[in-house]
Amino acid sequence: MNRKKGVIFLSLAIIMILFGLWFSTTNVYKFAKGYFAYNTQPENSQVEEKTKSTKKEIKEDKELYPTRPKIGEEIGELYIPKLKATLPIYHGTDEDELEKGVGHFAESVLPGEKDNSVLSGHRDTVFRKLGEVGEGDSLIVRTSAGEFKYKVNKVRIVDEDDRTVIVPKPRATLTVSTCYPFEYIGSAPERYILVAYLASKTLN
């Protein structure tokens, strides 16, 4: 009789142990599944949102100027609040464009687009007072795409053949260049450079 009770108790113990193992492993699995689902979902969502944002930015840039300008065409105006001056911008930097206003270096991006948009002008005409503009000042470009406000981040004085002025930039940048020194007689040996980053934009 005692032997029979012992067998019963042993069987019940084994059944309870097996049930406990089954219950715990099942819940652990559910917990693990839920935990990983919860923790990976935000990460995946962030990746998806970042991808959507990048695609949106690329699309916006492409749509700024559906039609690219031709050399000699007026593409907008440069407003310099510090000087209270509004200057026309022409696509190209040949003498024909520079005689009429500010020239846009045709191999650079257009104002408002990501990368380096380069503008040039003569120191004795449109940019004769550019030396009064420095770090922290604003440069505003208005084009068919909208209004783009840049803030001068750096002032550089470089040799006339310094090509770093036109190198690509990782962000929307406006580089404004003119001959230097301003009072120099003849062909000036240096360039006065304003490097400005896009601070805000209002699209048309």
Automatic annotation (TrEMBL):
Keyword Iron: no
Entry keyword set: Hydrolase, Membrane, Transmembrane, Transmembrane helix
Transmembrane segments: 7-24
CDD domains registered for this protein in UniProt: Sortase_D_1
Cited Pfam families: Sortase
Domain of life: Bacteria
Entry-linked SUPFAM superfamilies: Sortase
DNA-binding in keyword set: no
Protein name: Class D sortase
Organism in which the protein naturally occurs: Metabacillus fastidiosus
